[in-house]
C-alpha cells in the first residue's frame, strides 16, 4: 500500500506527462509539487532551492528522480522549510503538506469564450465593407461578399438604385 506521500508523488509524476508511469518525476513536476503543496514558500524554500536539490538527488545523467530520491530531496527541503526540526520530523511535516494533494490546475489555460467574443463575432453589428460580406442570418456570402464583381449595367459603381429610374415612354 503506497503512502499518502507516495500517492501524491505519483499523481504529480504523471501530471502533464502521459508517458510517465508515475514511478519517476521530472524537474518540472517536482517543482510543481513543491509549489502546489506549499513546500516551496518563496522565503525559506525558493524555486532555485528546489532546482538545486533536484539536481543533487537525481542520478548523474538522469532527467527524473524516483520516489526514494524524492524522499532524499524532501528531507533536504524539509530542513530548509522547517528549520530547527530533525530531518525525520521535517520530512513528516512535508508529508503532511503533501497529503491528498492533486496537481493544481488553477491558472492552467482553459478555452473559455469570454463575453467579448460574442460582441466581436456578431455579424449584424458589422459596418462598412464588412457588412457586405454577410447576409442577415450572419452567414458569410463567400466570394460574392468579398470580390469586387464588375457590374456592367451601366450604372455608377456602388449605386444601389439600379433599375429604379423611370424608363422614358
TrEMBL record:
Biased composition (Basic and acidic residues): 129-149
Cellular compartment(s): Cytoplasm
InterPro entries the UniProt entry points to: EF-hand-dom_pair, TPP/p25
GO biological process: microtubule bundle formation; microtubule polymerization; positive regulation of protein polymerization; regulation of flagellated sperm motility
Coiled coil regions, renumbered to chain: none
Entry GO terms, CC: cytosol; microtubule; sperm flagellum
UniProt keyword terms in alphabetical order: Cytoplasm
GO terms of molecular function: tubulin binding
Record protein name field: Tubulin polymerization promoting protein family member 2
Species this protein is from: Oryctolagus cuniculus (Rabbit)
Amino acid at each position: 500500500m503506497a503512502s499518502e506521500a507516495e500517492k501524491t508523488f505519483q499523481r504529480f509524476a504523471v501530471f502533464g506527462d502521459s508517458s510517465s508511469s508515475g514511478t519517476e518525476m521530472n524537474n518540472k513536476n517536482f517543482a510543481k509539487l513543491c509549489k502546489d503543496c506549499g513546500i516551496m514558500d518563496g522565503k525559506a524554500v525558493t524555486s532555485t532551492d528546489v532546482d538545486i536539490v533536484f539536481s543533487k538527488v537525481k542520478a548523474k545523467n538522469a532527467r527524473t528522480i524516483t520516489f526514494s530520491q524524492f524522499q532524499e530531496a524532501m528531507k533536504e527541503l524539509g530542513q530548509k522549510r522547517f528549520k530547527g526540526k530533525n530531518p525525520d520530523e521535517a520530512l513528516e511535516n512535508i508529508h503532511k503538506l503533501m497529503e491528498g494533494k492533486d496537481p493544481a490546475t488553477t491558472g492552467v489555460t482553459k478555452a473559455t469564450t469570454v463575453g467579448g467574443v460574442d460582441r466581436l463575432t456578431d455579424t449584424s453589428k458589422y459596418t462598412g465593407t464588412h457588412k457586405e460580406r454577410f447576409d442577415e442570418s450572419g452567414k458569410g456570402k463567400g466570394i460574392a461578399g468579398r470580390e469586387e464583381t464588375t457590374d456592367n449595367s451601366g450604372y455608377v459603381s456602388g449605386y444601389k438604385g439600379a433599375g429604379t429610374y423611370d424608363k422614358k415612354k
